[in-house]
Design goal:
With 441 residues, this protein is of the alpha/beta class. The chain has 13 helices and 19 strands. The structure holds S-adenosyl-L-homocysteine, iron/sulfur cluster (SF4) and FE3-S4 cluster. Iron/sulfur cluster (SF4) binds next to α6.
């Protein structure tokens, strides 16, 4: 079948990228393409890239180099995502066999770009950058996650934190209309999902272009869509975090009792140089709102260690913040200098070995906090949504409303389907997961 259109797509990066890929796959299928599992079998090879840390662009070029040997077979290549937007037409120079380079702010033009690709064009770009006000909306999302339906509510970022590439790779902050978000939530329920995750680099910077709903209103409205049992949302930015979000979580039981609120550093000096535009105290005030909620809200965060000129004292302030907030999960990263970002003019002064040491100290401290806190849940009964089954260990893996991993056993020989809910009695705890037994009636 020489004429059959096939594609292979590999995705790196954040949930936004993973969900973009679901939309890209849907768009390709709509244009008559079939997804295949290996590069060898594919006519079109797509690589959805991430450029958040390390030498991301070098890794992409390295990978494209590997693809060189495949080009004889007459395959076409495309680079999508954040490295595509960042490197632009330079990709054609370094990897001339690539025909398509597109950042996420141009995906709404994907159908047209694919047609040009099929017509034989070899230098197709979608590099709309920060000029576009439009979002990528398609009804042809090919959802890959069996238990969680993702919905983008806001694209891009206008925050320009000093270290971060995202404002340059994903374009301007632009929200979808609340009616379009709610329509997608209803469609997702029809497709069999009961858990929704609202996505955006900063979800709570959401501004309804229809002027109808605030972010907290939108959360509540999605939570009230019939058939929805769990609503998650990520990522929230402290600058736009308002008390009505906490009030919505208290009022609407389907909104999950978990908030991911990246702090980046516990030192106001470092936060200032990061251009986060809040202080330690300001951040902690938002945390205190959540601690005062009626439902216990689980908190998680992102932290960067070794930002230029971070002193031992700055770092100790971050360590102390862990104990003060009592997070249930921390994603720690070593600062890495990124192209185009304002922090590039600062000297990347902390040696790599010191960054590694600080990261290790941070994660060790956090592990201790989680070890104590997770063990406090022994004896509780939690609602767990099934995510998968590990037959080798005879265990079922799932997640609590607070986003904690729960591994449990049950006596029934029939494994529960991903996306189903069970009550689980917690019998043990590790620093990153709970262990339990299903309560079977
Ligand atoms: N929009 C979200 C997160 C975006 S990126 C927010 O503002 O919180 C995810 C995480 O990657 C960030 O929270 C940050 O901790 C980390 N990160 C971003 N740029 C980085 C860099 N240059 N070096 C190290 N970590 C970085
Ligand atoms: Fe990056 Fe800051 Fe925007 Fe988050 S808010 S995506 S860290 S620039
Ligand atoms: Fe990476 Fe782009 Fe997401 S840089 S983390 S894929 S926004």
């Amino acid at each position: 079948m020489a004429t059959e259109k096939t594609f292979y797509l590999e995705t790196f990066g954040c949930q936004m990228n993973a969900h973009d890929s679901e939309k890209v796959i849907g768009t390709l299928q709509q244009q008559g393409y079939r997804q295949v599992e290996s590069e060898e079998d594919a006519g079109l090879i797509l690589y959805n890239t991430c450029s958040i840390r390390d030498k991301a662009e070098q890794k992409v070029f390295h990978r494209l180099n590997d693809y060189k040997k495949l080009q004889k077979a007459g395959k076409r290549f495309g680079v999508l995502g954040c490295v595509a937007q960042q490197e632009g037409e330079k990709i054609f120079e370094r990897a001339p066999y690539v025909s398509l380079v597109s950042g996420s702010a141009s995906y709404r033009r994907l159908p047209e770009m694919l047609e040009r690709l099929e017509a034989g064009e070899t230098r197709i770009t979608g590099l709309d950058d920060r000029a576009t006000e439009e979002t990528f909306e398609t009804e042809f999302t090919a959802r890959q996650n069996p238990y969680r339906g993702y919905i983008t509510i806001i694209e891009g970022c206008d925050k320009f934190c000093a270290y971060c590439v995202v404002p340059y790779t994903r374009g301007k902050e632009r929200s979808r209309s609340s009616s379009s978000v709610l329509a997608e939530a209803r469609r997702i329920v029809d497709q069999g999902y009961s858990e929704i995750q609202l996505l955006g680099q900063n979800v709570n910077s959401y501004r309804d272009p229809e002027g109808k709903l605030s972010f907290a209103d939108l959360l509540a409205a999605v939570g009230q869509v019939e058939g929805i049992r769990r609503v998650r949302f990520t990522t929230s930015h402290p600058r736009d975090f308002t008390p009505d979000i906490v009030a919505a979580i208290d009022a609407v039981p389907t909104l999950c009792d978990h908030v991911h609120l990246p702090v980046q550093s516990g030192s106001s000096n470092v936060l200032k140089r990061m251009a986060r535009e809040y202080t330690r105290e300001w951040y902690l005030e938002r945390i205190s709102w959540m601690k005062a909620a009626k439902r216990p809200i689980s908190l998680s965060t992102d932290i960067i260690v070794g930002f230029p000129s971070e002193t031992e004292d700055d770092f100790i302030q971050t360590m102390d913040l862990l104990a003060e907030v009592q997070y249930d999960c921390v994603f720690g990263f070593k600062y890495s200098a990124r192209p185009n970002t304002p922090a590039l003019v600062m000297i990347d002064s902390i040696p790599e070995a010191e960054k590694s040491l600080r990261l290790q100290r941070l994660l060790d401290r956090q592990r201790e906090i989680q070890r104590v806190n997770y063990s406090k849940q022994i004896g509780e009964v939690l609602e767990v949504m099934v995510e998968g089954v590990n037959p080798a260990r005879g265990q079922i893996a799932g997640r609590s409303t607070q986003n904690k991993s729960v591994n449990f056993t049950m006596s029934s020989p029939i494994a529960p389907a991903p996306g189903s809910y069970l009550m689980v009695k917690i019998t043990g705890a590790f620093p990153n997961s709970l262990v339990g037994v299903a309560i079977e009636s």
